[in-house]
Design brief:
The complex is a heterodimer of chains A (256) and B (287). Chain A contains 11 helices and no strands. Chain A is mostly helical. In chain A, helix 3 runs antiparallel to helix 8. Chain A is globular. The two termini of chain A are 24 Å apart. Chain B is an all-alpha fold and 287 residues long. Chain B has one domain: MetI-like fold. In chain B, strands 1-2 form a two-stranded antiparallel ribbon. In chain B, helix 3 packs antiparallel against helix 4, helix 3 crosses helix 7 and helix 12 packs antiparallel against helix 13. Chain B is globular, with a radius of gyration of 24 Å. The chains are: A mainly alpha (256), B mainly alpha (287). Chains A and B meet through helix 1, helix 3, helix 4, helix 5 and helix 6 of A and helix 1, helix 3, helix 4, helix 5 and helix 7 of B.
Chain lengths: 256, 287
């Protein structure tokens, strides 16, 4: 038992040490991985003055907000329908597919599709692509909540004369609200971090470069303290959002 | 109980299903159409005469060897992730119930964060002037930096690092569903701890192991980011090959053929996993 716990601690070390090193180095004045030159926020300042990074971060934000809004609405409706419809294996497969399909396959499929129908590539095509997998994740989160939902509440509401819309907004939505919000937070995190599909469906030019695309371009050229700072910001944001989603959903995220 | 008409449930599902149909199913089917055409002169597709050339080209020894190489790297990564993840998941299941959610969350958290940054962290650690080499030299264990980055082991390490959280999750769910009385009965009947694990616990959690394995293998084979960043582009994997056909070589039909092979492989593995799950359930029923 003690050996098992020791192993678990070692695994946590393996998972978190690389990230921790990155975060510590981002505050290192010397910018070197080996020499500590004192605590400094210098690299964060550099980051804030880099117009390419700011532009890419803005693009990512726009994409993530749109993709989250669309997928949260569609995913929640989908979950409400699926949980009350007769179970269908084909539909289950369709809802599971976006979560397991390799990114590169969906990426080239969408690139070919958008090109064929002559849809102009840009931020809009990235949003459309991101909704595909976000939708599936939101739907899964909301469905998990609906499994323990008491549908007789809806019956009671309707029996007492409330319309379907009033029942939804005053009974169902307040009860499933936290899981909808959790699904939305998850979608936002996935979208803002997604690289491969965005890379293929963005088209050319800086105007549709997202933050992960910018990060990729930068890390291919090597290690810089500026990337460490950017990585710390991005990781910190993800941690906060996932933690919030987890709290809202009381540990029922797919994957937790 | 569900006093909602069939047409109403369909209406709720329609927008989402349409989105998936139009932007996932149709594009994926398109891949299978592209295979049978030639590349256009300026990239894209020449919709002229259909051809089988791309299908036969995929089985060219050159490309088959890349497929084989990727499969080996993916298999080694999968095995390593399972060996690391299984005991970790086991330790979490054995922890007090009140702490399990937090422990599992801690294991999964990295998985939800930026993949590029998690991979970049290893460049920081492994490069010649990086932390590991500096430490080795400082300790006097080496006089020259080791070549750690841009090697096959670095690629495997990156893949294992990225996908171990998912393996822990899959095996944890399987272990948690397992009725502890089976293992207790085995011990009561005189089996040792090792024998109980190998003959009771491991077979009954095989579906979880299979689910984790399929996931790691498929995502590793089709990966192009990790081989590019940690392999320095020296080792092509199927993902890199597909990437090149679409973004550099501009031979989309051939890239589509390679992707189709990847999809086929994935479906095959999922099918095998479904069978493993059914088998395990059968044994569970008999046990």
């Amino acid at each position: 038992m003690r050996a098992l716990n020791g192993w678990l601690i070692a695994v946590y070390g393996f998972l978190y040490l690389p990230i921790a090193v990155l975060m510590v180095l981002s505050f290192n004045r010397s910018g070197m991985p080996t020499a500590w030159g004192g605590f400094s926020l210098e690299w964060y300042g550099k980051l804030a003055q880099n117009p390419k990074i700011i532009g890419a971060a803005w693009n990512s934000l726009v994409v993530a907000i749109w993709a989250t809004a669309i997928s949260t609405v569609l995913g929640t409706l989908l979950a409400l329908g699926v949980e009350r419809a007769r179970r269908s294996a084909a539909r289950e497969a369709l809802l599971f597919a976006p979560m397991i399909i390799p990114d590169i396959v969906l990426a080239i499929a969408l690139l070919s599709f958008f090109t064929l129908i002559k849809f102009t590539l840009g931020l809009r095509s990235i949003v459309m692509a991101h909704v595909v997998f976000n939708l599936a994740f939101v739907c899964a989160v909301v469905r998990a909540r609906l499994k323990s939902y008491d549908w007789s509440l809806n019956e009671a509401s309707r029996d007492l004369g409330a319309s379907a819309a009033a029942t939804f907004f005053r009974i169902t939505l307040p009860l499933i609200g936290p899981s909808v919000l959790a699904g939305g937070l998850l979608a936002f995190t996935l979208s803002i971090d997604e690289f491969i599909i965005a890379y293929f469906t963005a088209g050319a030019g800086q105007s549709s470069t997202t933050l992960p695309m910018q990060i990729y371009a930068m890390i291919r050229f090597g290690v810089t303290p500026e990337i460490n700072a950017m990585a710390t910001v991005v990781m910190g944001l993800s941690f906060v959002m996932i933690l919030a989603a987890q709290r809202l959903n009381r540990g029922r995220l797919p994957g937790t | 109980m569900r006093m909602i008409s069939r047409s109403a449930t369909w209406l709720l599902m329609l927008p989402g299903l349409l989105w998936l149909g139009l932007l996932m199913v149709v594009p994926c089917l398109l891949i299978f159409v592209l295979i049978f055409f030639e590349r256009g002169i300026y990239g894209g597709i020449d919709w002229g005469a259909p051809t089988l050339e791309n299908v036969t080209r995929v089985f060219d020894p050159l490309y088959l060897s890349i497929f084989l190489d990727s499969a080996v790297i993916a298999a080694v990564s999968t095995l390593a992730a399972l060996l690391i993840g299984y005991p970790a998941a086991y330790a979490i299941v054995k922890a007090p119930p009140s702490r399990q959610t937090a422990l599992l969350f801690l294991a999964i958290l990295p998985f939800w964060t930026n993949y590029l940054i998690r991979t970049y962290a290893w460049i920081v650690l492994l490069n010649p002037a990086g932390l590991i080499n500096s430490l080795l030299i400082w300790l006097g264990l080496r006089s020259e930096p080791l070549t750690l980055l841009y090697t096959k082991p670095a690629v495997v390490l990156g893949l294992v690092y990225s996908y171990t959280p998912f393996v822990i999750l899959a095996i944890y769910s399987a272990l948690q569903r397992l009725d502890p009385s089976y293992a207790e009965a085995s011990r009561d009947l005189g089996a040792g701890a090792a024998q109980t694990f190998l003959r009771i616990t491991l077979p009954l959690t095989a579906p979880g192991v299979a689910a984790g394995a399929v996931f790691v293998f498929v995502l590793s084979v089709g990966n192009f980011v990790t081989p590019d960043l940690l392999g320095g582009g020296k080792f092509q994997m199927v993902g890199n090959l597909i990437y090149d056909q679409f973004l550099s070589a501009r031979d989309w039909p051939f890239g589509a053929a390679l992707s189709a092979l990847l999809i086929g492989l994935m479906l095959l593995l999922l099918f095998a996993q479904a069978i493993a799950t059914l088998r395990a359930r059968g044994e569970h029923a008999r046990a």
